[in-house]
Amino acid sequence: MEDIIVPPLIVGLLFIGLPWLILHYVTQWKKSSGITREDENLLEDLYETARRLDDRLHSIERIVAADNPELGLRPQPQDQLRGDVRKIREM
């Protein structure tokens, strides 16, 4: 049987290069797993927009309920919803 000679380059890539590549990307993944300040600002803006839209929707529901009581629309308490959101934000 012939001896199979494995070039040192292939051995180097297999035992040094591949683990280094895997560990490099695992480290990068762990570093970037948190939320950035820019993302946090965007979420804050989206939350404020959603809150204002929710206030407008409740105002419209109150107006419609006052004009047409037979529709059965009842405004829901906003304080309960805002309290839940505040609890979530404090976490």
Search tags:
transmembrane helix, 91 residues, 3 helices, rod-shaped, Envelope stress response membrane protein PspB, 75% helix, membrane, mainly alpha, Phageshock_PspB
What is this structure's SSE topology?
Elements: H1 8-31, H2 37-67, H3 78-90
Protein name: Envelope stress response membrane protein PspB
Region (Disordered): 70-91
Biased composition (Basic and acidic residues): 81-91
Structure write-up:
The chain has 91 residues and is an all-alpha fold. The chain has one domain. Helices cover 75% and strands 0% of the residues. It has 3 helices and no strands. The protein has helices spanning 8-31, 37-67, 78-90. The chain is rod-shaped, with a radius of gyration of 29 Å. The protein starts with 7 loop residues before the first helix and ends with a helix.
Task: Give a summary of the structure in a few sentences.
The protein is mainly alpha-helical and 91 residues long. The protein contains three helices and no strands. The mean pLDDT is 79.
Distance between the termini: 68 Å
H-E string: HHH
Number of helices: 3
Task: State the major sheet.
Answer: none
* Count of domain modules: 1
Q: How many DSSP E strands?
A: 0
Mean pLDDT: 79
Query: Which residues sit in consecutive blocks of at least 5 with pLDDT less than 50?
Result: none
Region (Disordered): 70-91
Biased composition (Basic and acidic residues): 81-91
Organism: Sphingomonas changnyeongensis
Pfam families: PspB (PF06667)
